[in-house]
Every structure is written in structure tokens, then in C-alpha cells.
């Protein structure tokens, strides 16, 4: 067997693994990264990048239509799909995706790439495809992400449904698309395909969409999908699926006895961990009931002697968001570098404490939903004495310039005992860029009385911060 030795071995070459590898390498360590599919991972080829590449032309068209004096803007499905193809580096007219750009970055950074499927076979020992053994002198980092969850519904797997992977890379727009689920992926892609010409039906078991955001935000997205002609059915459970052939129409039977028929079925009901394929039981790694690896505050996997195994990103289940995984990876990489070189770890850089403050997130529907920190209900559940402040987005002067008849809402969730922000949500056109300022205020525990002195430029949509603070009483 071919054997190599490195200071650090990272399993998974998505953005999270790349960040962990990069930080460890910048500390002066030798690093190998193992990837069985595409360097760049799910986010680059099947999730974040392609979905936003599909959504942006739709949003830009609608934004143009909402401004007096701008006429003629239309969504061009062929152009939208071509733009997506550029973002995922599709090779010609094939279905092959090209990760050479990402591989080039690894080469430039000085990180060795090992292609194949990894398995942990001992302390600091990773085997790839049973042919190559990688020994880590200091640490092994698990950054394997997650796979789309496909529930055990009778007939579902036989029907060859789409997941986010097929939906974000499809070359064709089905006449009828049925979507199982009502989360972020379901809502974003339902809006994409409706804009591209599909008749879309969304089936969600819960009584609302987007269960992890403020209810007013979920309601706004529901109303937008209704406006777009999407048939949204809440409180609806699918009980079986049938499809005569892999290219025939698919029928979904509901618990009501009704059926919904489509040309494609998109399953968007969540994600599942894949770290169970790595053989981590052999080194004592602990997982929770959902299968995610248990980690301490420094992302070290519990149950493993010697503190050499780390799990970052989706693999630990703390926050299934690329940016939060990258944040954890940077902290873990810095910690590994410090320990390996005999330096005292800087807790300000090696403990990703913000993971527990409520992750910032954007739902890139039209309207957008951008949120950070805790919702009002989450803060209350944590025993925080809160005050909720709501203002309409059109109270900011910049919103009226952004679009005629601008629609939206903003919310602050304030910890009254400390006088600081613990949550914020913005709903409306182009609100994605508003959320970072709120994230800074939450992580920095900026007193609202001090935040009042952060003067927003006029006339921008950031003026909404002033309106929220005025509504609070400052």
C-alpha cells in the first residue's frame, strides 16, 4: 500500500474543508485533502452557487419591473440556464462538471489533493480507496458535509426523484414540477422553476413554510409563491409515489386521498450526515441521535483519545450553512496550527463561539429573507427577557428608491436585561446585505444606545436600523 505522511489530513474538499486545510497550511503545516467527487463540494456545484446563479436574473428582472421608467425586462430561461452552466463550469454540452479551477487553487496554496473515498482506520490514519494510507502527525479533520435526505416513502426511490443536485443542474425545465418540502431549498427552487415556466406544486407537512424563520417572514414568502402561481399545500402529507418509467410522469398520493401529478419530483426535506461511512466508530467517535458527530467548543470530536480528530461544518450538525462551516474550519485550522507548532492557542481565534448565537442566513426568494441571531420564540425559549420591535421596510427612505411600492418588514429582538440585540430579521427586495450589520451588533454585544450612533447613509435601505432604534425609543 502507498503510504504518505502529513501534518494534517482533511477529509472533504468543499469550502469548509478547503478553509481548514488553508489555515493549517498557513501555520506552516503540510496538508493533504481527500475528495471523492468534486473539489469545491456541494456548495460550489449543486447548492449555493448554482441556485443563486439561477435566482439572480429572476430577481434582477423583477426589480427592474418595479422601477418606474424601466420597461421591457423579461426572464429568458435559456439565458438563465446558460448563466448557471458558467457558474458550475459545465463541460460543453455534457453533464460533466469541471473542478479544475478549484484544484488549481489547492495547487497554488500548496495543499496536496488525494482523490478517492476516505476511511479512518486507526489513530491519525486515513485510508483512501484501500490503496493509499495517509498518516497525520497532528490532526485529521472531518469536513464531509451532508447528502440530501430522501425519506422512506413507498415508491419514492424507485421514482428517481430530483434532489437539489438534479434541480440545480438540470438542462431542461419540466412542464410540471412537484416539490416535497417547504424549507429554503424547496422555496427557492419552486420560485426558480415557476419563473422559468414550470407549473409548480409544493407539498409541506407543516402548517407553514420555512419553519426556522420568523412567522411573518414565512408568510411573506408564501404570499410571493402564491403570486407566482405556485400551488402551495400546507398540512399535506405524501404517503406514496409511483412512476411507470424513469422518464414518465410521477404521481404523488396524499394522505387526503388526492393525487398530484408532475413530470419531475423534487425532494427537499432536509439533509443527512455522511460521516457514518468513515469508520469513525473504530476510534471511539461519538455521534448524536441524528448521526452528527459530537464536538466540544473547539470542534474536537468527543470520545476520541488524544484530541486529534476534528469535525467542522455539516459533519457536526451545529449549523448546516456553508458560511458557518467555514467559520468553524478557520477556527479549527488555527487551533491545529497553534498546537502543532507549540504555541498557546488564542481563544479569540480558536473557539467559534458565535455558532451558538444563532446563525446568519439568507433565503434568496423574492422577497428575500435575511435573519441572524435568535427569533423571538427562540430567545424566549432560552429564558431571555426580550422586547420585539417591528417596523415596515418602506419606512426607510432608501426602500422607496429601490422599488415603487416597496413591501417588507424588519424586526429586532432585544435582550432587555443587557440592552443588546439578540436577533434580527429583514424581509423585502435586496435585504440580504442588511443582515451583516446586525450580525456584527449581536456578536459584538453592541449596546443599542451605542448602536444609535452608527449613522446610516441617506438615502439607503440601511436607514431601517435608525427606524428600528427609534421605534425602540432611542
TrEMBL record:
<dbReference type="InterPro" id="IPR023753">
    <property type="entry name" value="FAD/NAD-binding_dom"/>
</dbReference>
<feature type="disulfide bond" description="Redox-active">
    <location>
        <begin position="43"/>
        <end position="48"/>
    </location>
</feature>
<dbReference type="InterPro" id="IPR036188">
    <property type="entry name" value="FAD/NAD-bd_sf"/>
</dbReference>
<dbReference type="InterPro" id="IPR004099">
    <property type="entry name" value="Pyr_nucl-diS_OxRdtase_dimer"/>
</dbReference>
<feature type="binding site">
    <location>
        <position position="314"/>
    </location>
    <ligand>
        <name>FAD</name>
    </ligand>
</feature>
<keyword id="KW-0274">FAD</keyword>
<protein>
    <submittedName>
        <fullName>NAD(P)/FAD-dependent oxidoreductase</fullName>
    </submittedName>
</protein>
<keyword id="KW-0285">Flavoprotein</keyword>
<dbReference type="Pfam" id="PF07992">
    <property type="entry name" value="Pyr_redox_2"/>
</dbReference>
<feature type="binding site">
    <location>
        <position position="204"/>
    </location>
    <ligand>
        <name>NAD(+)</name>
    </ligand>
</feature>
<feature type="binding site">
    <location>
        <begin position="181"/>
        <end position="188"/>
    </location>
    <ligand>
        <name>NAD(+)</name>
    </ligand>
</feature>
<dbReference type="GO" id="GO:0050660">
    <property type="term" value="F:flavin adenine dinucleotide binding"/>
</dbReference>
<comment type="similarity">
    <text>Belongs to the class-I pyridine nucleotide-disulfide oxidoreductase family.</text>
</comment>
<feature type="domain" description="FAD/NAD(P)-binding">
    <location>
        <begin position="6"/>
        <end position="318"/>
    </location>
</feature>
<feature type="domain" description="Pyridine nucleotide-disulphide oxidoreductase dimerisation">
    <location>
        <begin position="360"/>
        <end position="464"/>
    </location>
</feature>
<feature type="binding site">
    <location>
        <position position="270"/>
    </location>
    <ligand>
        <name>NAD(+)</name>
    </ligand>
</feature>
<feature type="binding site">
    <location>
        <position position="52"/>
    </location>
    <ligand>
        <name>FAD</name>
    </ligand>
</feature>
<keyword id="KW-0547">Nucleotide-binding</keyword>
<dbReference type="InterPro" id="IPR001100">
    <property type="entry name" value="Pyr_nuc-diS_OxRdtase"/>
</dbReference>
<dbReference type="Pfam" id="PF02852">
    <property type="entry name" value="Pyr_redox_dim"/>
</dbReference>
<dbReference type="GO" id="GO:0003955">
    <property type="term" value="F:NAD(P)H dehydrogenase (quinone) activity"/>
</dbReference>
<keyword id="KW-0520">NAD</keyword>
<dbReference type="InterPro" id="IPR016156">
    <property type="entry name" value="FAD/NAD-linked_Rdtase_dimer_sf"/>
</dbReference>
